[in-house]
């Protein structure tokens, strides 16, 4: 099905600095594609200051038929959080240093191919998760990875290289933390190297923490990496990058619709890559099919 006729007005939220990629030409391409297909096109360029508030104002002022986030996971997360529970779908043109959600949604990573979504696509519903009421669309966690995300955000440098450098520096000295996790089905109590609340599958780095997660199954997974000898680190890393972490004896998965995580050691956390402090009791809930997303046409409908 081609939705071209229904698309009247689209908002494009462009992060000019994401992925260190210049987007001047892209802006012109977007305008040309919209003109060609009779679509009214509005552009908002992020500044890094109060972007969410400014985009919310635009959404309140005008009814858009879709909002495209053009940037990395941070930009996608801001736009998505404003569209949850509305009838307005989220589109993604992946142009960040981390493009995790777009990969899990099978959005083309090639910009030219992704731009086709402007006029040719299907709309599907996906689940979202909330942590103490704060939306998470992709992956949130406590523990080692969250610590690396915090240090990465505090540092001045961008990109996957500096993330890997921080991870290497922190790895040897990191001690697992103690958690109690009560889900609607089971209870876990013990130490973990990291605790990931996963609506989706893989981080922007391509490390796949939840290979069997499904974005619209009405459930989320709490993925634990339990304490392991440092010598097992390489094997765990290998399994993360070969979609086989489920086969590790140090991994555990709690599949659920709701959970409460007691963060007894006050470990840091992030939601979709943004550091956040939610206190020591984190209530997690699934919101089935609460976000509409713009996706490529299935091959049999091409
Ligand atoms: N015009 C701007 N100038 C500086 N920073 C900006 C600007 N617009 C957005 N930002 C910042 O960009 C970050 C989000 O970037 P995003 O995740 O989309 O791309 P990225 O290349 O993957 O970035 P990162 O690797 O830092 O996550 C946020 O920290 C936001 O504050």
TrEMBL record:
Q: Which Pfam families match?
A: DAGK_cat (PF00781), YegS_C (PF19279)
Listed under GO cellular component are: plasma membrane
**Does the keyword Transferase belong to this entry?**
yes
* InterPro entries (UniProt xref): ATP-NAD_kinase_N, Diacylglycerol_kinase_cat_dom, Lipid_Phosphate_FormReg, NAD/diacylglycerol_kinase_sf, YegS/DAGK_C
Q: Which GO terms describe its molecular function?
A: ATP binding; kinase activity
Q: Residue limits of the DAGKc domain?
A: 5-136
What protein is this chain from? Answer: Diacylglycerol kinase family enzyme
Which organism does this record belong to? Pontibacter ummariensis
The organism's lineage is: Bacteria, Pseudomonadati, Bacteroidota, Cytophagia, Cytophagales
